[in-house]
Design a protein that fits this description.
single chain, 2 domains, five-stranded mixed beta sheet
């Protein structure tokens, strides 16, 4: 695994957390272009608001902090965020508009901007081609770093896609609750890239659910250093396939690290009239607390599946087919055949356990 051409990474502890890394940086030797997908929560963090302003400009660096959501803490929160970006911009010799920021952690606590600013020089000095520091700096309740990599063979040359993600709790579809950073050296047209990203997110980050709770900070950045040009439709197809693999790999790792979970569950709905109906049904089941509790107890109470489908407006007949793998195992697959058509969709979720309650009862 290697970093795509044109990038350097860094991760340090700046004192937001008492221990472990809490400040990360993605830096490009040249300016890079970014596509971003943000939370649909009506109360977004100051970091999301700031990054939305700059997302379409040439970007030099992305700053990420963990341990503090930088959200709903005080009326000058957005101004503080801009101040942090300004100080990083000074260190790098660029404008504030060339900086993006992402944050994750506890909502409602004031961002300790002076700790971050004081450690900017150290963060920049630590830039390297190593991945471990940045991967660790973005974590909160995660129990392991989430990294995925894929080569993009392009005949005589080769490109790559490298992804980082964090997330374990507050995971809900429609821009799932997490941060993700997908970096690549592929140069691809903005319109084509937008379509590729939409497909990749639909089948990965927007097809996972842990607890049905949406964060204020959800962000996915797709970042390109534009070092390797794609020359034809076949190369675009190859890149698209590898990008989807990286995104799905990261999405599954988020679910496998779900807070308190004992099972990784794939819910496949097939025999639907459309992909939209299949996805709607799979998400309804994955978000059902009754279903998730039943899976924790290895209880094949399929009435909860039928109920969830009905709540989503999907009427089924008595000949619906529901099959499952061994429910006592760690990896479980539930397949529901609606017998309405030929479309299918998979959503990935976890069981709901007493440990999840314990973790979130103490989280403050």
């Amino acid at each position: 695994m290697k970093i795509p051409k044109g990038f350097l990474l860094s991760g340090i502890n700046c004192g937001i957390k008492k221990k472990n890394l809490d400040l990360g940086l993605i830096y490009a030797q040249d300016f890079f272009k970014v596509k971003g997908v943000f939370t649909t929560n009506a109360n977004p963090s100051y970091s999301v608001l700031f990054s939305k302003r700059n997302i379409n400009k040439p970007i030099k660096a992305i700053l990420v902090n963990s341990g503090n959501a930088n959200c709903q803490s005080h009326k000058n929160g957005l101004k503080d965020t801009a101040r942090v970006a300004l100080e990083l911009a000074k260190c790098l010799g660029v404008a504030t508009s060339n900086i993006l920021i992402a944050s994750t952690g506890i909502i409602g606590k004031k961002l300790p901007k002076e700790k971050i600013i004081k450690n900017m020089p150290k963060l920049v000095r630590n830039l390297s081609k190593k991945t471990e520091g940045f991967a660790g700096s973005i974590l909160t309740t995660d129990t392991f770093p989430k990294v995925a990599y894929a080569k993009v063979p392009l005949g005589k040359c080769e490109a790559s896609v490298l992804g980082f993600a964090k997330g374990a709790g507050m995971i809900c579809p429609n821009m799932a609750t997490m941060l993700a950073f997908i970096i690549t050296d592929v140069d691809i047209g903005s319109g084509v890239l937008r379509g590729v990203i939409q497909e990749a997110i639909a089948m990965s980050f927007n097809s996972i659910s842990v607890d049905g709770c949406m964060s204020t900070n959800d962000t996915v950045f797709f970042i390109s250093s534009k070092k390797v040009s794609l020359k034809n439709k076949n190369q675009i197809r190859i890149f698209s396939g590898q990008l989807k693999k990286v995104c799905l790999n990261l999405a599954k790792k988020i679910v496998k690290d779900a807070e308190g979970a004992s099972k990784f569950i794939e819910v496949e709905v097939k025999g639907a009239k459309t992909n939209s109906q299949a996805k709607k049904g799979a998400l309804a089941i994955a978000n059902s607390n009754l279903f998730k509790c039943a899976l924790y107890g290895a209880n094949s109470n399929w009435g909860r599946v039928v109920s969830a489908l009905g709540q989503a407006g999907i009427k089924v007949k008595e000949d619906i087919i529901i099959k499952s793998s061994e429910l006592k195992k760690k990896d479980v697959k539930i397949t529901i055949d609606l017998k309405k058509g030929k479309s299918c969709w998979s959503v990935y979720t976890s069981d709901l356990t007493p440990k999840y309650i314990a973790i979130n009862a103490e989280h403050s």
